[in-house]
Amino acid sequence: MPLLDHEGKIIGVSFPTHHTGYNADRKAYRTWSRMPNRLSDTEFVPEIRIDRAGRRNPSWKDRGPAQPAPWAADAQDGMLYVHAHAGRRGFEIDANVGTDDDPDWRTLLAPRRFFGHVLAANRHFLAASGAAPRRPLLMLCCHAGNPDYGHALHATEVLHSEGLRHDVYATVAQNWIGWDKENGTAGVIVEVPAGSSPSDAVVVIRAPDEAAPPVGIGQEAPLAATIPPPVERRSGVDALSPTDR
Question: Which of 55, 73, 100, 229 is least surrounded, with the fewest CB atoms within 10 Å of its CB?
Answer without folding.
Answer: 100
